[in-house]
Design brief:
170 residues; elongated; two-stranded antiparallel sheet; alpha+beta; single chain; three-stranded mixed beta sheet; 7 strands
């Protein structure tokens, strides 16, 4: 008896499996790098939002930047001219809120939305109250220390400073 002409031989099946494997080997790294680029772009965009909110706060508070310990409240609630925080607006607390909530730094399934003046386990943003600068806490995970992530979220000058000193700029 002769085999049907419509059946596949073992060689043909092996060739198809090899071709699918080669395509997967090409596609999977491209997909994962796309996720990584999207994460770093989102962090950069959130940093811009926070930086603009800090600058807006300073413009309304005689050039004073938010306090290092109260920054989250000062950006998300109402303040008076001296930076005193109140949840609701009244006759003196007329400034703000500058953002609805503090955006999170999201990388590889992890999320951090706390702001502090130094790196810690639950901190997403590092804030410099003397200069008003804010940075993602790139010490949170090794994924943030890749050149691609640093190049996306830091300016070239900030990246150079970090590479020389191992610390974020002032």
């Amino acid at each position: 008896m002769r085999a049907s002409a419509s059946a596949f031989s073992l060689v043909e099946l092996v060739i198809v499996v090899v071709i699918v494997g080669v395509i997967a080997a090409i596609a999977v790294p491209r997909l994962t790098s796309g996720v990584s680029r999207a994460e770093s772009a989102a962090v950069k965009a959130n940093r811009v939002v926070l930086q603009k909110a800090i600058e807006h706060y300073a413009a309304e508070h005689r050039g004073a930047y938010p306090d290092g310990l109260l920054i989250a409240q000062q950006l998300t609630q109402y303040t008076d001219e001296d930076g005193e925080v109140l949840a609701d607006a009244d006759a003196t607390h007329i400034y703000g809120p500058y953002v609805r909530k503090i955006p999170a730094v999201k990388v590889r399934g992890h999320s951090w939305d706390q702001i502090a003046t130094a790196s810690a386990n639950d901190v997403g943003w590092i804030y410099r109250p003397t200069t008003g600068n804010i940075y993602p806490n790139i010490f949170q995970t090794t994924a943030m220390l890749t050149d691609q992530f640093l190049t996306t979220v830091l300016t070239p000058q900030e990246k150079d400073y970090f590479m020389q000193d191992g610390e974020l700029p002032p």
